Amino acid sequence: QVQLVESGGGLVQAGGSLRLSCAAAGRTLTAYAVGWFRQAPGKEREFAAGISWSGGTTDYADSVKGRFTISRDNAKNTVYLQMNSLKPEDTAVYYCAATKWGISRSLTERYDYWGQGTQVTVSS
After folding, report:
1. If you placed Cys at 115, which of 4, 9, 45, 54 could pair as Cys (CB 3.0 to 4.6 Å)?
2. Which of 85, 83, 94 minimizes the C-alpha distance to 40?
3. CA-based angle 84:85:89, to the nearest 5?
4. Measured between alpha carbons, how far is 43 from 75 in angstroms, rounded to an integer?
5. How far apart are CA 121 and CA 116, in angstroms?
């Protein structure tokens, strides 16, 4: 099993920044690709960003491209999501998920492990 724990969420004003962390307990994340997903109340979970096991490949949803940056430090078993220029529509619970397959925007079943989520609230 891989236990994932997200942190770094909070309340921020529009235009501000937050840095989310996804830390793994137990098994190393080295062999896993990791995706960040978000879910607003009453809405479907949606893909935000993903990164390959090596960090050499990244993918972003159009809605966050240019504002969010995903990165990883395998030595620390941690994946980060730097969120800049935050907008109220970014408000959601953010989840990280891990898969031994490559990152995917839509194939959520590919992700075997999910964290508990961290709340991000952006006020106008």
Report:
1. 4
2. 94
3. 110
4. 35
5. 16
User: How far apart, in whole angstroms, are the C-alpha atoms of residue 104 and residue 24?
Assistant: 20
Instruction: Give the model confidence (pLDDT) of 83-107 as tens digits.
Output: 999 999 999 999 999 999 888 888 8
Q: What angle do CA 41, 64, 36 make, to 5 degrees?
A: 65
CA distance 41 to 76: 32
CB 112 within 8 A of CB 98: yes
Contact in structure between 12 and 20 (CB atoms under 8 Å): no
pLDDT tops 90 at residue 4: yes
pLDDT of 44 reads 95
Q: State the DSSP code for 105.
A: S
